[in-house]
């Protein structure tokens, strides 16, 4: 006596248990269902499938892999500094000169909130603005003409 189950049956039980399955797992459950049913003849079909899903062989199980995305962005930074002057007009000119001469490079700055924007390839001269790496740092993908896929 064969109580064959279908793909939809496996998917229903997997969804109820919040277990992710792929075609290999579904096929394994269908192909081995009768053996598991024979080992527990009093169990309902869905309990047999549940037992099987909780015991998926390691080589079939869906694994989770971690990646990270590096993105090039533009943002505005604020540098606070002071200049002395006889009046505001003189102070303004001294401030402009101070910045143009590069005197702010040693002064700390703060990021202005909500000003970050992901840089486009065009803004970056076609060079990558997105890079994907595996958790261990292995390169996966870049989106620009500096692509390692070329």
Features:
single chain; 150 residues; alpha+beta; three-stranded antiparallel beta sheet; two-stranded antiparallel sheet; 4 helices; 34% helix
Describe the protein in words.
The protein is built from four helices and seven strands. By secondary structure, the protein is of the alpha+beta class. It folds into two domains: 7-54, no CATH class; 68-142, no CATH class. A three-stranded antiparallel beta sheet has the order 1-6-7, with no helix packed on it. Strands 2-5 form a two-stranded antiparallel sheet. A two-stranded antiparallel ribbon has the order 3-4. Helix 1 (7-17) packs across helix 3 (45-54). The longest helix has 17 residues, at 23-39. It is rod-shaped and about 95 Å long. The two termini are 58 Å apart. The mean pLDDT is 93.
Describe the structure in brief.
The protein is an alpha+beta fold. It contains four helices and seven strands, in the order H-H-H-E-E-E-H-E-E-E-E.
